[in-house]
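Tutorial handout. Part one gives the primary structure; part two gives the three-dimensional structure as tokens.
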Amino acid sequence: MNSKIIAACGNDCSACPRFVEHPFEKMEEELHQTALMWWKIGYRDHVVSNQDISCRGCSTENWCRYRVVKCCADREIQTCAACTEFPCKNLKECFDVTRSFEPKCREVCTDVEYDQLKRAFFEKEKNLTELYRQVQKGQENA
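Part two.
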């Protein structure tokens, strides 16, 4: 699959090892391996169940550390790239905290795991910046 599914915060769900929406179903072992990876990276303090690790995408009911999903819903936009305050202080903090996990991922993950995490999470600022430029260009042409 080459097309990206960009979340409100810029994560690429299509590259995420947790995302299980069709056609991205994961086998039980894949989800377990993801739970193990989250533990060894430090995203979780224990290995969680497959049900706990799987993700069906963002919603206002899901926990979001930076309240990005709720903010986007309140502003009636799909991603932060469509926001007039892009990038806000909250989103910059989100980018910084995400980047803070990258060295540990490089240390404990295989190259394949790291590449997947890079596409899924560590390129969120790049993803949103590209979308933001597209939005701005579209507004100029309107």
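Part three, for discussion. The chain has one domain: 13-141. The mean pLDDT is 91.
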